[in-house]
Each structure stands twice: as C-alpha cells, then as structure tokens.
Amino acid sequence: MVRRTGEATREEIRTAATHLFRERGFARTSVRDIAALASSNPALVIRHFGTKELLFLETMHLTIDDEPLFDVPMEQFGERFIEVLLADDDIRGVYLALVRGSNEPQIRTRLQDIHEKMFVGPVRARLAGPDADIRARLAAAVVGGLLYVLWVVGDEALVAAEPRELVVRYGALLQQVLTERH
Q1: Which residue intervals of 64-162 are DSSP H helices?
Q2: Rounded to an integer, what distance in angstroms lies between the CA atom of residue 95 and that of residue 154?
Q3: The pTM is what?
C-alpha cells in the first residue's frame, strides 16, 4: 500500500469535493461521500478543511475570462457576454452549486461577492452616465434570468434552442439594458 502525502490527500479531497458539489450541490453532498470518492475518511476531510461549508467555499470559484469581453466595443458587449457565458461549462457547474447552497450564509455571501466583483463592478466600469450602476445591476438580473431558466428550471425549449439564436436574441436584450437613455 502506498501512503499519500498530506498535500496529495488534501488535493484528492478537493478534487472529489469539486466534482460532487458541482454534480449534486451543497446539501446533497455529504462529507462521507467526499471521503469515499477521495479514498479517504471523513475525519481527514474535516482535518484538512474544517467544515463541509469551508471546503465548498474553497472549491467553488466562479471565474469568467473577461479578456474577450473587454476587447469588444460596448455596442457589442451584450451579445459577446452571452456568447462567453454559454460557452463555459465550468460557469454552469459552479453557478448551480452556489445557487443550490445559497441558503447557507457563507455561501450566499460568496454568491453576492461574485455578483458584485465579477459582473456588476466590471460592467459598471465600462458604462458612462449617472445611471451606470443601475444599468449594470439590471444587466446582472437579465443574465441571472437566463442562467436560471437554462440551468435551474431547464426550460426545454430554450435548452434545445440553437445556441447562436440565444446569443443574438438575449445579447440584444442585455444590450438594451446596458444602453444609456438620452
């Protein structure tokens, strides 16, 4: 039998937890399940990470590659943002895990932090005018609605829709919210 190092055990636990949290969400993933998938034991999971919630927070990070977003003129931002969002499977998994676990205070705080730092703040920075903040927040709500119907509700007609059609139509809707009124 080969003994693993503490760091190797920690990494196997992190990998197992990431997989299970994305697949099942926070509430339906137990420390025992994580330990079993990592070929470890529950006591080691707790020893390495403290609590299931802390392990969740360590493994569930939402990132959006913003380079392709900031390389486009603002007039094309809506469509490009939807295109980038729908093309990234990692975003889907982390988003669902965070939403499913949002009844936990620390997870809700992480979701709020992601909302502010990954979407509202960067979008607001690209906008001009006295209503830039409200437009950025409305844009986040518009995007959140799309993610909800696609990934939480699983609206069959939208899930089956041609991806390019979703990008064009929803991108136009997002663009309308982002555009300053004169």
Answers
A1: 67-70, 77-87, 89-100, 105-114, 121-126, 132-147, 156-160
A2: 14
A3: 0.72
Record the tokens describing residue 38, joined without a space: 């990592």
CATH fold for domain 6-59: Arc Repressor Mutant, subunit A (1.10.10)
Q: State the Cα–Cα distance between residues 32 and 149, nearest whole angstrom.
A: 32
- 3-class secondary-structure state, position 179: coil
Residue 103's Cβ-count burial label (10 Å; 0-12, 13-18, 19+) is exposed
Residue 9 Cα distances to 6, 67, 146, 167, angstroms: 5, 34, 38, 42
- The ranges assigned to domains in the chain are 6-59, 67-178
pLDDT, one tens digit for every residue, the chain (182 residues): 445 678 888 899 999 998 898 888 888 889 999 999 999 989 989 899 888 888 887 887 766 656 666 678 888 889 988 988 888 777 787 788 878 888 888 888 888 888 898 889 888 988 989 999 999 999 999 999 999 999 999 999 999 999 999 999 999 999 999 997 76
Burial of 94 (0-12, 13-18, 19+ CB in 10 A): buried
Contact status, residue 123 vs residue 140, Cβ threshold 8 Å:
yes
State how far the Cα of 122 lies from the Cα of 105, in Å rounded to an integer.
25
